[in-house]
Write a sequence for this structure.
């Protein structure tokens, strides 16, 4: 063993020396022989020639000698290299096959890697925070119904902080929108007001500068701010002198004390921080009295050897103490600490799972395609393989040679796939969730997938080919039966059926999602978005009347209204109501969305008032506490009774009882559930928030009004930040998930259909060429060409039909899984019919081409070459 | 004697035997085998050196550069201990086999 190693190493390291020595030995041998021959009487020249002739081929000997000195591996390596070269040569003889295979495999590997990267980032990886199992988020849950949570108020947070200080360190985060003015246009960014120790709790250190300290978080402290890496790059081009400079935030000069690092752009972390880009101390702008202002999220780090159970017990004690205290806002609520997971909605998870399924289907299809085509190609070479086996070639050797072709294809498609995935993620196309990088995990996944494809599509057919190439295929000309072994044609045919089934399933999925998108766009009951412009302004009550007046003055504007929020895209925060009604049960408080609106609100949205009336300017001017509730709330609280005249109060607020003067129709939300949220509309002046949404109804297309509206608002107060979009654009962006899925499935489905058709074509071509002899016989005997075409067409159509049936059944079975993503669409007979029609058209063409070729076979040529 | 070809597999054994008496260079091995077999065995020269390298790789012989009779540099091969053992094994095998074949060939009809 050691000798072998020594010899091997010497061979590798001392190759030069070995060659020289070998040459010297040969030379010595030849000279010695020539000398002996000379002694026997030959002339010098003759002796030399004779010696060389006796020796034989020196180079061949040297080759054998080299081989003898090597270990198996190096020789094996040379063999493999030879196989690869030969494989490349064979492939270059059929560039169409190679090109399509590489392209289709590359794209489907790429699709799988891209989806995997997204899923990995979102769902599989834990949060990149140290000791993240010590981190919790504390939420308030209703005692009677723990599925209902509410955001916390600052006062509650402070209570928790003081009373639980020995068990955990708490920090608060309040998302807000900040206006950054830098001597020019105001720009709006998502920001957050945070406790000074938030980043300490989350264990995130700034990349430059310092984090917040407790002195920053006191009333009256010098205003400071932390910037995110993204914002720093965008506004300051990554200049290092930014730390210490001043930035005007919401009209106040703040000193920038630090920049947070780039890996905060990890999606999970971004969501934890509510995607904020600027962080300011929270104390500076807290409205403790506004119990309705519940916008604080609380994170905590459990101190050592406090378990989560202990923490929860402590929080419970605190909650009860608070309940017992004066304030009614704590009634019926308790606090729990949950591990910090990134809360992706089940819908998002479902969407990601669906996307993964779709691309996995495509990959299976591509595998099946390649496998069936490889089977066809190796099938044509079975005679060749059988000959070689008979001559003594080893089976593994031949399998390796056959496999090397597929291996070359897979190896070529892998980098293509990775590049395609990278591009897809960078371009932020479709999925509306950006993650963005192909990292080592994704690369390993890609390699794994490639190996899987190679084995399934290459190794299995190669093994089959060698196994079924028996000596009997050599035995004479197989005239009485086809050279296609029965298991071969069954397998090839079966693979094609599978391909067609997969393609059909994907296409039916595409039609379902497309229908769902259509449905969502034109959902009955949602208001007509086509003439509405939405202008969002950050500002307070003061400017509302003036804003409305200015916007109304723009050309083509029919009416303008303002509201504090519209629960269209998300459910919106809900507040408990107290009902003045002796029938209400104490144990079931009603929560509703409260929004402040101006008089023209319902008119601008064209949402009718079904009972009663809207509040009048007189009501607003006199300050009468009035409200308009929506149908859902009315039916829930006052079923069967006229709601007009009933009274409600916002729980916890010091306001008066509101009298219901009208009931409006529901505004359906835009998400899949389309559920209307119980809503109470109060006069705008009584409910102003930090943001205002102005609804502008235009006579015609609202898009030309975007610029003028924005300008008008900025003119009013340049420090406001304004954004204006058409309602239709908002609607579209809200439906982007559905649209993306429709688009994804359509794309994949089309590729799938093309590949499946290619598969049908390939397999039928093989059948035709395998039976060329038999066809020739029939043709020579006068068989009708049409009958031949019909025969092969029938074969093809049978495969297509079987695939279509399987695919439709599969699609119907899988619909149940994706129901949560579909807007009430479950079966789509028109879509299915359309898919089948498309399949028949393309598939039939693919089947006809080789069938037609069969009919045009020249019997003379066919008979000559069995 | 008429020169005969080698039986497959016997080349290694013959080389080992040739070297067992004294270290030889490649050409010397050739001559020695011819000599002791009365010119009956002629080794194809193209297979000699590969066989030598193979045996050396397997550790059955060792090599060393030295000086030949006419003061020229040549590589001499010598038998190693494992080589000696292998030679004994091969010899024993060979004897067994030839005895068996000889007795099979000497069978006379009727004797079974």
């Amino acid at each position: 063993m050691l000798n072998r190693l020594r010899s091997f190493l010497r061979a590798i390291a001392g190759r030069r020396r070995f060659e020289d020595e070998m040459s010297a030995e040969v030379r010595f041998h030849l000279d010695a022989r020539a000398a002996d021959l000379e002694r026997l009487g030959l002339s010098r020249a003759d002796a030399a020639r004779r010696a060389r002739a006796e020796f034989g081929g020196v180079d061949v000997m040297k080759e054998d000698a080299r081989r003898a000195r090597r270990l198996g591996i190096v020789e094996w390596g040379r063999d493999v290299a030879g196989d690869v070269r030969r494989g490349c040569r064979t492939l270059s003889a059929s560039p169409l096959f190679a090109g399509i295979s590489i392209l289709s495999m590359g794209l489907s590997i790429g699709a799988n890697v891209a989806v995997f990267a997204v899923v990995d980032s979102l769902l599989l990886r834990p949060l990149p925070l140290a000791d993240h199992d010590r981190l919790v988020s504390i939420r308030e849950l209703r005692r009677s119904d723990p599925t209902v949570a509410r955001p916390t108020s600052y006062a509650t947070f402070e209570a928790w902080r003081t009373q639980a200080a020995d068990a955990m360190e708490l920090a608060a985060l309040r998302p807000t929108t900040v206006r950054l003015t830098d001597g020019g246009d105001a720009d709006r960014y998502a920001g957050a007001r945070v406790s000074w120790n938030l980043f300490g709790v989350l264990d995130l250190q700034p990349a430059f500068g310092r984090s917040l300290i407790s002195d920053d978080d006191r009333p009256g402290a010098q205003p400071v701010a932390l910037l995110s890496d993204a914002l720093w790059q965008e506004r300051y081009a990554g200049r290092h002198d930014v730390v210490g400079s001043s930035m005007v935030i919401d009209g106040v000069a703040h000193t920038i004390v630090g920049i947070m690092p780039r890996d905060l752009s990890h999606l999970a972390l971004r969501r934890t921080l509510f995607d904020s880009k600027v962080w300011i101390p929270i104390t500076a702008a807290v409205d403790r009295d506004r119990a309705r202002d519940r916008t604080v999220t609380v994170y905590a780090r459990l101190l050592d050897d406090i378990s989560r159970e202990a923490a929860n017990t402590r929080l419970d004690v605190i909650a009860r103490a608070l309940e017992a205290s004066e304030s009614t806002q704590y009634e019926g609520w308790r606090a729990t600490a949950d591990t910090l997971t990134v809360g992706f909605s089940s819908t998002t998870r479902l969407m990601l799972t669906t996307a993964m399924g779709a691309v996995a289907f495509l990959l299976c299809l591509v595998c099946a395609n390649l496998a069936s085509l490889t089977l066809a190609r190796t099938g044509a070479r079975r005679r060749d393989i059988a000959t070689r086996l008979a001559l003594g070639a080893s089976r593994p050797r031949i399998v390796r040679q056959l496999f090397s072709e597929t291996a070359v294809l897979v190896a070529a498609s892998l980098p293509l796939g990775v590049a395609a995935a990278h591009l897809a993620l960078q371009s932020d196309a479709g999925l509306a969730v950006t993650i963005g990088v192909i990292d080592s995990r994704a690369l390993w996944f890609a390699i794994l997938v490639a190996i899987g494809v190679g084995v399934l599509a290459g190794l299995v057919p190669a093994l089959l080919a060698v196994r079924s190439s028996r000596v009997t295929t050599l035995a004479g000309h197989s005239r009485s039966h086809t050279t296609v072994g029965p298991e071969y044609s069954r397998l090839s045919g079966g693979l094609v059926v599978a391909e067609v089934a997969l393609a059909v399933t994907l296409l039916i999925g595409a039609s379902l999602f497309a229908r769902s998108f259509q449905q969502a766009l034109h959902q009955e009951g949602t208001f007509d978005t086509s003439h509405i412009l939405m202008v969002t302004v950050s500002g307070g009550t003061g400017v509302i009347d003036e804003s409305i007046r200015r916007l109304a003055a723009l050309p083509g504007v029919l009416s303008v209204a303002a509201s504090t929020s519209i629960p269209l895209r998300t459910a919106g925060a809900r507040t408990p109501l107290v009902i003045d009604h002796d029938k209400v049960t104490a144990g079931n408080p009603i929560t509703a969305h409260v929004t402040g609106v101006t008089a023209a609100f319902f008119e601008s949205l064209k949402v009718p008032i079904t009972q009663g009336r809207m509040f009048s300017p007189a009501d607003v001017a006199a300050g009468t506490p009035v409200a308009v509730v929506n149908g859902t709330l009315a039916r829930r609280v006052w079923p069967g009774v006229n709601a007009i005249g009933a009274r409600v109060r916002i729980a916890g607020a010091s306001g008066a009882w509101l009298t219901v003067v009208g009931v409006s129709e529901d505004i359906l939300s835009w998400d899949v559930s389309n559920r209307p949220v119980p809503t109470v509309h109060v006069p705008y002046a009584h409910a102003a928030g930090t943001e205002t949404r102005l609804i502008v109804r235009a006579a015609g297309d609202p898009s030309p009004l975007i610029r003028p509206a924005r300008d008008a608002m900025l003119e009013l107060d340049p420090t406001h930040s304004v954004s204006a979009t058409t309602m239709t654009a908002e609607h579209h962006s809200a439906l982007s998930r559905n649209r993306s899925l429709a688009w994804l499935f359509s794309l994949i489905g089309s590729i799938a259909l093309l590949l499946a058709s290619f598969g049908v074509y390939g397999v039928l071509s093989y059948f035709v060429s395998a039976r060329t002899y038999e066809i020739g016989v029939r043709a020579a005997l006068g068989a009708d060409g049409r009958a031949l075409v019909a025969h092969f067409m029938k074969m093809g159509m049978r495969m297509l039909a079987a695939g279509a049936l399987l695919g439709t059944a599969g699609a119907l079975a899988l619909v149940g899984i994706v129901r949560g993503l579909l807007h009430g669409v479950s079966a789509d007979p028109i879509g299915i019919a359309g898919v089948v029609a498309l399949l028949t058209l393309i598939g039939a063409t693919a089947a006809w081409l080789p069938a037609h070729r069969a009919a045009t076979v020249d019997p003379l040529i066919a008979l000559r070459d069995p | 004697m008429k020169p005969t070809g080698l039986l497959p597999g016997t080349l290694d054994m013959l080389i080992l035997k040739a070297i067992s008496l004294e270290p030889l260079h490649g050409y010397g091995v050739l001559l020695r085998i011819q000599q002791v077999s009365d010119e009956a065995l002629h080794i194809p020269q193209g297979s000699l050196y590969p066989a030598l390298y193979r045996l050396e790789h397997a550790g059955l012989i060792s090599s060393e550069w030295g000086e030949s009779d006419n003061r020229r540099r040549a590589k001499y091969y010598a038998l190693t201990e494992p080589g000696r053992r292998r030679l004994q094994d091969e010899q024993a095998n060979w004897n067994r086999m030839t005895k068996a074949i000889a007795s099979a060939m000497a069978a006379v009809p009727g004797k079974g």
Remarks:
- Chain A touches chain B at residues 2-4, 7-8, 21-22, 24-26, 28-29, 31-33, 35, 54-57, 60-61, 64-65, 67-69 (CB under 8 Å).
- The first helix of chain A runs from residue 2 to 13.
- DSSP finds 27 helices and 22 strands in chain A.
- The mean pLDDT of chain A is 78.
